[in-house]
Structures are given as C-alpha cells and as structure tokens.
Design a protein that fits this description.
The protein has about 180 residues and is an alpha+beta fold. Helices cover about 50% and strands about 15% of the residues. It is built from six helices and two strands. It has a two-stranded antiparallel sheet with strand order 1-2. Helix 1 packs antiparallel against helix 2 and helix 3 runs parallel beside helix 5. The chain starts with a helix and ends with a helix.
Length: about 180
C-alpha cells in the first residue's frame, strides 16, 4: 500500500475506535458522540480520497446502504427537494489563536489530544471543526482571531439531495 493509504487507513481505524469509546462512555452527551462521529466521517473521506488518488477506485462507503431494506429517500418527482446553501466569510487575523481555540474545544468535547491537533492544524481545519461543534455560532470566534466578514444563504430547489448524489457528484458540487 502507498504511504498515504496506510496513514488514512490508520486514521480511520483510530477514528472508529474513538467513536466507539465515545458512544459507550458518553452516551448521554450528544456533543461528544457527534464530535466523534464527525471524526469518523472526516477520516472516511480522507481514506476514500487516498484510495481514489492512488488507484482511481471510488468511495467504498458510497453505496453502503444500497442493499439494505432501510427507509430510503422518496424517488417520486413530486417530492420537493430543497437545499440551503450558505456562505460565511472570515478574516483570520490570528491563525494560531483560532487553531489553539479549536484544539481546546475538541479536547473539551472528548477528543484525544492527537486527534484534536490533527483536526485543528490549519485555520480552515479549525473552522471546520468549530462549525461541527458549534453549528456555526460564529460570534464565538470573535475573541479567537476570526471575525465574520459577511454571510448569507439562499434556499433553492435541487434535482438531487446530497445523499442522492454519487461521491463524484458531491465532490464536483464542492461537498
């Protein structure tokens, strides 16, 4: 295996173990479990991307529910599909403060120090982690080196929801 795939695989296994531990230890804390869940999702995306880059094979997780008898999204054309698309712009005046803040918040949420450091190693990773934890309560970042520089959103009709898109379609759409 390539080094990138090995590393992504190890990170995915660790994220799965962290999630299992959070689910068992913090079952009453939705924030802790949600945070660990985001770690699994992030690691799974990294693994799928590493596989794709090295081999051209698609996302191994993309069709995971395809053969199951679980409830699926309606296929009717009469179902209204809406998407809320938003944009929040930031001026990161103190990247180190923002990354430290994100790392601290992740640790407070039950992440181990290494995983928290990995998920706050850049200003963009820090904002991604904070958005997962805070649900875009952007006022919380003013004292941490990032000020909002505008935001807005729109609601549009879409042909497919994100869950109905393939990995390639999601990537091409920026997700």
């Amino acid at each position: 295996m390539s080094t990138d795939i090995d590393l992504a695989c190890e990170q995915l296994v660790k994220a799965l173990r962290d999630h299992a531990a959070a689910a068992l230890s913090y079952s009453d804390s939705s924030a802790m479990v949600a945070s660990a869940r985001q770690g699994v999702r992030s690691a799974a995306r990294s693994y799928a991307d590493a596989i794709f880059e090295a081999t051209g094979w698609g996302n191994v997780f993309a069709d995971i529910h395809e053969d199951e008898d679980e409830e699926t999204l309606p296929e009717s054309e009469e179902v209204e599909r809406l998407s809320v698309m938003g944009r929040w712009d930031f001026l990161v005046e103190d990247p180190d403060a923002l990354m430290r803040h994100a790392c601290h918040r992740l640790i407070e949420s039950g992440w181990d120090e290494q995983a928290a450091a990995e998920h706050s190693e850049s200003p963009s990773a820090a904002l991604d982690s904070l958005a997962t934890l805070d649900g875009w309560d952007v006022r919380r970042y003013f004292e941490q080196g990032a000020k909002t520089a505008g935001y807005g959103w729109t609601v549009r009709h879409v042909e497919k929801t994100l869950w109905e898109m393939s990995h390639t379609e999601r990537r091409d759409a920026g997700f």
